[in-house]
Amino acid sequence: MADREKVRLMARLAMLEKHSGRRIRKAENTSRIDLITNPVWRWGLFVTLLFFALTAVFAVLNMDMVLDAVSKDRTKSLIMIVLITWLSLLTVTIVISFLWSVSGAKRVNREREQYRRYLLELERISRMEDRRHEAFSEDDLWEEPSRPLRSRHRSRPAEEDLDYRQMEVLEFEDDDYCYYVEAVPKRRGGRHG
């Protein structure tokens, strides 16, 4: 049961790392407020630079209209139109990017908590396995002197040490995928690496 749960947790951790690993690591190194405000400032700056660049291109292409407005003392109204348009566009951009950032920060925090839960559960299962290995009696050790009591680095078992008749297919799913993992148990009398 513990082996099956361990395989399932390791597969879930691998999938979470594959899909969200970069976001989780980035969230670990930044505060929650920075996750929200940094995209807002970036988008605000981008929209401002883009707006004024497009305004300058428009002014150059329509130089006659601009010069006509300047000669008829309509400069203030022209500047007011540009500023009101810019502030409106900037406000919409800030609101949308803020809402997007908040939802992204919530998603990353959920993924980070899920990742921590998986790691804690995997650690708990590993501690149980370590206790089970330490519980061998001396008779068990004399029967298999070549088998280490605790081994961090296990080599892959030979084909004859695996019992394919008792192979299990584990199935689980998350929001995006359905996973199938084949788990092949070791034979009881086989060598252990």
Describe the structure.
- 69% of the residues lie in helices and 6% in strands.
- Strand 1 and strand 2 form a beta hairpin.
- It has a two-stranded antiparallel ribbon.
- The protein has 193 residues and is mainly alpha-helical.
- The protein has one domain.
Could you outline the blueprint of secondary structure elements for this entry?
Blueprint: H1 2-29, H2 32-61, H3 63-71, H4 75-134, H5 138-143, E1 168-173, E2 178-183
Antiparallel strand pairs: 1-2
Poorly predicted regions: 144-153
Tell me the number of helical segments per DSSP (H or I, 4 or more residues long). 5
Assembly state (oligomeric):
single chain
How many β-strand runs? 2
What fraction strand? Answer: 5-15%
What is the terminal-to-terminal distance? 21 Å
How would you write the strand order of the largest sheet? Answer: 1-2
Short description:
The chain has helices at residues 2-29, 32-61, 63-71, 75-134, 138-143, and strands at 168-173, 178-183. The chain is mainly alpha-helical and 193 residues long.
Main attributes of the structure:
193 residues; mainly alpha; two-stranded antiparallel sheet
